[in-house]
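REQUEST ID: PR-0412
SUBMITTED BY: lab tech R.K.
PRIORITY: routine
TASK: structure prediction, single protein chain
INPUT:
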Amino acid sequence: MADTPPASADAPPTEVDVVVVGGGPAGLSAALNLARARASVVVVDAGRPRNAATLRSHGFLTRDGVSPLELRKLARAELTAYPNVTVYDRIAATALLEKDCGDGRRFIAALSGRGASIPPAVSARSVLVATGLRETLPDIPSLRAFYGMTVFSCAACDAWELQDRPLALIGETPDLAVRARLIARWTDRLTVFTHGSDAVNTVEEAELAASGIVVERRRIDDLEGDRGAVSAVRLQGGGRVEVDGGFVRPQWHPALDFLGGLDLERDGFGNLVTDRSGRTSVRGLYAAGDAASPGPQQLIVAAGQGARAAAVLVHDLVGVRTAH
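STATUS: complete
OUTPUT:
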């Protein structure tokens, strides 16, 4: 079936109170709380979660060790109890614009995807952005084969299972030394691989060495291992470092291309700047989860942000000012 065409004057958009763009923990948590406040909600989920490669997620109260996909499945099932929520799966928001209507200003979200029942656009009084991030890993041939199984990006999420083992930290960003000091909480056998970059300066290298952390500046040829279990980092020019797991620092990019038509305040990484309640610089538009500054968060933190933003959004819709 062909992709849904763009909105046109001949196809008036579906009208709801809130459009939630993004179907991860932040977006689904927001949708649940908005539903319970009797708001009509459309959730637009492109179906490309950043943690799709992760077998188990951790730190989520009552769900420690659950698959991220299972967590999404459980959340989706809970939303089916609320007839005022519609979830559009594998559908992307391609544009978001403001429009003055007879009953006030509204947001028009243009949609694209496969499905005859999907409207070309949705009109809403408010929008909550929870699109998360895209990530680019260092250019190492076999890295994806281990990512999410024995090589991870979040120490708070996954370091417990790797504690006291020889570990690698791979990255090319200026915060690599900071991450190394954090990961050293779980192991005293850590090697930092800069993959030929200048991510760690000489002062930082000396500080890390004083803590027993080795810095390896040569480029990585590849990772060795079997069935998702990494066993060594092989270096260009010869040499290998044996490891039992590790962490990588991806390059993160906000998935916010659809917001190009709005003048929104962003931080230095391109994430949306919000107040403590999730309000962005555009009235009626909110953000939660990884799309909002400061960026990547644990799943439970993102879910909490979604719930808080939903509560504030409802208060704003009815004109009630609270302490939020």
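NOTES: The longest strand covers residues 91-101.
REVIEWED BY: pending
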